[in-house]
Amino acid sequence: MNLVRPTPPDPYSLLPEVPAFTLESSDIADGTPLSFRHAAEGENRSPALSWSGFPASTASFMVTCFDPDAPTPSGWWHWVVVNLPPSVTSLPRDAGRPWAPGVTDSALPPGAIQLRHDGGGVGYYGAAPPRGDRPHRYYFAVHALDVPQLGIAEAATPALASFQAVFHTLARAVIVATFQR
User: Fold this and answer.
1) pLDDT for res 1
2) What domain count does the chain have?
3) What average pLDDT does the segment 109-129 reach?
4) Alpha carbon distance 12, 164 (integer Å)
5) In b/e form, how buried is each residue of 65-101, taking b as 16+ CB within 10 angstroms?
6) 113 touches 138 (CB < 8 A)
7) Residue 66: beta bridge partners?
8) Over the stretch 40-84, which tens digit does the pLDDT of each residue have?
9) 104 vs 109, which has greater pLDDT?
10) CATH number of the domain that 124 lies in?
11) Mean pLDDT over the full length of the chain
12) Within 10 Å of residue 134's Cβ, how many Cβ atoms?
């Protein structure tokens, strides 16, 4: 199979410009490969993230991980968390572990919602580009929003969450990591 295709642009360059703030991680760094710990075939664990310098008027956060290089017309959503209160300025490693009814050890605060990733499950879906494909970019983003809740159902798609967030984004912080198999 031939996977030669154009490189998609930075997905956030296609949206209205917003100010930036700081996103840091003890697990990932901008422009560097993800460890096997964060790959689907590895430990499938979401990286630790922390953020600062967001607008004082922030009412909630949305955390996302998106791969625009997936060989689909719409990229691939790996992780979406909505309704994080403004008091939450970090997520520990593995905060994106799959959630299920009756699970009480969530690293997410009450009211936060993890949406289904494009693999069909809930929570973080690690890097999984096709074997032999070029390095894929994984955009880990924290979106500072002007509403306390995004107003979407748990069954909402990542695309719907992102669409709704465009109208409420005050600022955004991004780390772009890579992965290749």
Assistant:
1) 73
2) 1
3) 95
4) 14
5) bbbbbbeeeebbbbbbbbbbbbebbebebbbbbebee
6) no
7) 77, 139
8) 999 999 999 999 999 999 999 999 999 999 999 999 999 999 999
9) 109
10) 3.90.280.10
11) 95
12) 14
